[in-house]
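Record type: monomer structure entry
Structure origin: computed from sequence
Chain ID: A
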Amino acid sequence: MDNKEPGDDLFDRLDTASLNEHLRSLMDGLTVKVFRTYNASITLQQQLAKLTRAEDNVHQKMLSYNRANRMVAILCNHQRAVPKGHEKAMGNLEQKIKDKKNELKEAKAELEKARGAAKEKAQKKVDRLKEQLKKLKIARTDRDENKQIALSTSKLNYLDPRISVAWCKKFDVPIEKVFNKTLREKFRWAIDMTMSSDEEYIF
């Protein structure tokens, strides 16, 4: 602590290359990234267990997944500036929610008047619109919570993909919701390994 000013780096003479060299002398292949990967993966697994509810629909489960992934991104400091189009996108979502609420209000009024077979049809319409409104509200929450976090960086570089695949398998969430086509090809080994196993993968 000698000759240090507030704001100075504590380990100013230590760099990643020399630290990795020391770690490799202790164990072959051990680097700083191994610790980062472990912390990221264990955090994802713990957060998924804490946040996911089996009774939720797919949209709610994906909100939980993104929240767990967001905790990892914050841990790894994967932050970004708010995207330029964020406000416009949020405005569009707000308008869609407003329109859907009006549509639901009209559908409820129609349901009140409906009789016989028309009543069942009107009820189905109300139920469908309620589900669509819920989906839009989840999308709004998810988009706003993610505005300053880069979720893709940790997913691509620091997370054991088997955790995500096992979560999809356990909670009946399509893999496509978590991994785009490029990531599905990159992590084909993890998908095949986890999906073909009778045991739940635990990191």
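Annotation 1: DSSP finds ten helices and no strands in the chain.
Annotation 2: The chain has two domains: 37-80+149-203, 83-148.
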